[in-house]
Design a protein that fits this description.
It is a single chain. The protein is built from three helices and ten strands; from the N terminus they run αββαββββββαββ. The protein has one domain: Sandwich (Immunoglobulin-like). The chain is globular, with a radius of gyration of 21 Å. By secondary structure, the chain is of the alpha+beta class. A hairpin with a 2-residue loop joins strand 6 and strand 7. The protein is 15% helix and 36% strand.
Length: 142
């Protein structure tokens, strides 16, 4: 009988109980050191597996006609709490992909949480945690 009473109270008062907020955040920054007449691609990844498989969490593109000459501001909106990486590259030959050379990328690229290593970047080395809005995720292409 007590169990039924508790169950009925739970059902009746559930709408009054605190519900977790559907909170999302914005991650934004400025990209510099790029050629203004070429397209810039940004992708946000939420795991090592997704990064390796190029399954992005969110994606942005700045086409050459809209990118200003010195810097471009970007913003990923609706980002949930978690760990992410942001990868950026500039498509110099217009084929829509990051071309690789003998020693790494043949086109300008960079990660937020700068990667300067000789080997491919790893999610664990470049990740950052989102628990609120970030407006200082600046990236300098190299």
């Amino acid at each position: 009988m007590k169990l039924r009473f508790i169950y009925v109270c739970f059902i009746l008062f559930r709408p009054c109980m605190a519900q977790p907020a559907d909170t999302t955040f914005t991650v934004s920054g400025i990209i510099t050191n790029y050629k203004p007449d070429k397209t810039i691609y940004l992708a946000m990844y939420s795991s090592e597996k997704d990064f390796k498989e190029r399954t992005f969490y969110k994606k942005l593109r700045f086409i050459k006609e809209t990118a200003p000459a010195d810097s471009v501001r970007y913003a990923f909106t609706g980002v949930e709490t978690g760990e992410y990486i942001i990868a950026v590259y500039q498509d110099m030959n217009g084929d829509g992909k990051l071309n690789m050379g003998f020693f790494g990328p043949a086109e300008p690229y960079q990660m937020y949480r700068r990667h300067d290593g000789m080997f491919a970047p790893k999610f664990s080395n470049c990740k950052f945690t989102v628990t609120g809005d970030i407006d200082t995720a600046h990236i300098v292409l190299k």
